[in-house]
Design a protein that fits this description.
Layout: H1 4-7, E1 11-14, E2 23-26, E3 44-48, E4 54-56, H2 58-61, E5 68-75, E6 84-90, E7 94-98, E8 104-106, H3 108-111, E9 119-125, E10 134-139, E11 152-153, E12 158-159, E13 170-171, E14 173-177, E15 183-185, E16 196-197, E17 199-205, E18 214-219, E19 225-229, E20 235-237, H4 239-242, E21 258-261, E22 270-273, E23 282-286, E24 292-294, H5 296-299, H6 301-305, E25 310-316, E26 325-330, H7 337-340, E27 351-355, E28 360-362, E29 377-383, E30 392-397, E31 403-405, E32 414-421, E33 433-438, E34 441-446, E35 449-450, E36 461-466, E37 473-477, E38 485-488, E39 496-500
Parallel strand pairs: 32-39
Antiparallel strand pairs: 1-2, 2-3, 3-4, 5-6, 6-7, 7-8, 9-10, 10-14, 11-12, 13-16, 14-15, 17-18, 17-35, 18-19, 19-20, 21-22, 22-23, 23-24, 25-26, 26-27, 27-28, 29-30, 30-31, 32-36, 33-34, 33-37, 37-38
Amino acid sequence: MYLPETVGAGCAFLDYDNDGWMDIYLVNSGPCDFYTPSRPLRNALYRNNRDGTFTDVTEKAGVPGSAYGMGVAVGDYDADGLPDMFVTQYPRSILYRNNGDGTFSDVTEKAGVACLGWATSAVWFDYDNDGRLDLFVCRFVDFSKAKNIYCGYGPANKRWYCKPNVYTPMPCWLFHNNGNGTFTDVSSESGIAKSLAKGWGVVAADINNDGWMDLFVGNDTVPNFLFANRGKGRFEEIGGLAGIAYSNFGLARSGMGVDAADYDQDGWIDLAVTNVDHESSSLYHNSKDESFTDAALKTGIASATRLLSGWGLKFFDFDNDGNLDLLMCNGHPDTMVEQRLQEVNYKEPMLLFRNTGAGFENVSAQSGAIFSRSLAARGLALGDFDNDGIVDVLAAANDGPPVLLRNRSSRQNHWLGVRLIGKTANVDAIGAKLTYQAGELRRHVFKVGGGSYLSAHDPRIVLGLGPNAKLDWLEVKWPNPSGRTERFTGLPVDRYITIVEGQGGWK
């Protein structure tokens, strides 16, 4: 039993052909030193047919993957208006450049981002505020078939999937975008490589409102990382000081998926991380001084997740009432767990927590049949695949088909969907802040980079307006190096618009 077998895979929503409809990419396992498939395996790219169905275009597009697949990060790294894909794999990752004609090219060698080793989640973000998207890649442990460890259980010493504490942690990667199709590995000089990781999830967000994008990394059996961006290309790892590295008992947990959002609208970004059974997931409230307090207990999230093992999670406004809710997918990493532990299952249900404005309420039971169905879920992506303004969900599962969930809630609430295109700021506008007013409802949303587990999301932001049929105004604060704020009035509702930085209008 080899550890990579039980931890994948990721998935993504992306509009690869720029037709305004979200397509789907699914990551699969593949050939490597410990696995030779009996028949060829590949990843899958599905084009959205705009009628609720999809067509497999993987072969034409040329994005099958080339090794044991893990996850995917989507970003327009060359700022040509087309989303590119970085697919994390063991033992070598791959960068697919979008050619704009329905095909992609493997540019890994030219770009210099092969990431030899076991790569997991990745995120595109602009760490040095030069307006170009850089790439951070989580690395898990020092692993190969030759280094595989036998983990036995019980009198018969039956083999089971090892806890990662028996493997050696490894540094993550940070690549600087040189602006010419190549990247420079700056892991060492940036300070990233000083911290040895067993990294699963990553999200890029400005946690201290200083205008520089920071990184929150979920680690498995070693402390979580919070890389505070100090400018001038340097990061400081402050997870311990910030209170997000360990449990309340001072123990490193099994951090899997992560996300970041200002769920309570106080102007400061909060963090969330999923953990395995008997550890509970965490909801870290920002104390506004580079420290956090875990609010999972008082919100009921801790008790709801105590016996579950979480992977992908994401903040989003599922019912368009203007409050950011929280979705988690679950499933135990060990196929034999039911032989070892009572009350814990290998397949587990998803969870949905509704933000009431005064806390979180577990509304899973009344949110559809999927929440009573058990899955070996892993990656989780958000995207509005039918363009009705109500954000849908894609979950990847181990040894089973993915789950595509059409969101049928919030028909009575209004919304505005916004696609941001940066010019001086990075083209994907990672780090932007959108503030809006609709009647008595005033809200803001930060556009973070990445989040969840091994997965990538619809780049459009859906603003929930509640019952308000009119949007009074919208302000967009573009990320550095732009930093400009633009205000828009007379905007429509219940449709998608595109705002290009500096053009003073929308389309």
